[in-house]
Amino acid sequence: MKMMWRIVMCVAAAALLSLPVLAQEGKPAEGSAPRGAEQGGQGMRRPPMSAEDRIKRLTEELTLTKEQQDKVLPILKDEQKQREELMAGGGPPDRDKMMKLRTETNDKIKAVLNDDQKKKFDEANSRMRGPGGRGPGGEGKPPSGEKPPQ
Asked: Residue 55 falls within a domain, yes or no?
């Protein structure tokens, strides 16, 4: 009987000691922001838009002509292919290469646009980058040219 009582007490003690662990499972640590909250409450990042979706958005925002659409779409498809290749490595893609790819793509697109469209394009890109230049609600750039933590 004493042995049975000890077993019951051990099981009860183990159950009580494991409750805090079970209560915290799936919740962020106290005082920490949920993942993605530092990105302006966006949560997990959305996957990049397809070339077709981007050409539709650009056509609406910039009033692209059919001729311009025919020139810009291959540029967007090429960027999409290169971006997928950079991300195929399994780990996070090289940020510098991704930024260079985006800059080169934007330059190619701007070469197709008229002056008014270029202005609208630059304004739209500024809005997308947010106040600090790093996505919507961006965190800002590190001071004095420092590399961001990785």
From this structure: yes
